[in-house]
Fold this sequence. Notes:
The chain is of the alpha/beta class. Helix content is 37%, strand content 22%.
Amino acid sequence: MNISAIREVLQQGATPVPLEGDHYASSHATYEAASNQRGRILAWTREALIPQLRAEQASILSIGCGAGDLDKEILAASTKQSQVVAYVGLESDAGQCERFLFQMGHKDNGRVQVEAQNVGFEDLHDPRRYDLVIMVHSLYYMANPAWAVEKALGLVKDGGRLVILLAANDTLNELSSSFWDVEADREAWFSEDLGAYMNQLGLIYTRERIEARLNVTQCFNSASAAGTQIADVIAQVATKKLTPRLQGMIGEYLDATSEHDGQQRWLPHNVDAFIIEQQVISDDGVGRQHRSLTPETRCLGSALAGHS
């Protein structure tokens, strides 16, 4: 079974039901629990991002923060680096926004200020600039990703950084991108698309691969609610509301593409981290522009092998 067969069926008029609200939140929590990616991201964040924050005070904006599971860990690490931390989460789903505030502990004291904005990025009007702007798996959902990247850059202070974590359009994400094409009538960006766009703009950036994997064993148990939730997030649709034919094709695709050791099955769950430093130079004294350098790429899989 290859992805082209699934795409052919989708083009015949399928109407997938997208993941939204509590269904998305619950399914995503199960999906994250089946992966070691979040732990790898956190380890990378502590190593590559937190030490670069200013010791006196730091401001952080998380675009698409969700329920704050990762943000609460980033905040905790940030307070060990900086004396004062202002942390803003941006989330369009009201329920997720409430969960974010709960996870972050409603902190608002002399050292830590936490704020949540229940608004879509497209509707954000924020005059502030931040030392660190992070977008973790949120660029896929932007209707205009090129515009979103440039807007996010505009929210970064001089000397600050925009960090975008995005998966490659590999085996794990071929399903979601196929359904997205039908569901939203547009193509989502993956790391290949972002890299090409930033090269086109001539931006300074570093690209680092964070290696992880997703346990999909339960997806092969038709009676497993957790397996259904994991499959739902992989495809980004309510799989039980698809036709029996499509459900079977998804199962066959996962069977053909997953690795296994006789007991467990998994898929690579890697993510690419793009770090764009907001370094600007005067353009003959009139306006400002990004400095253009050759991008650097490296792999962090072996360096983070001890984290989970």
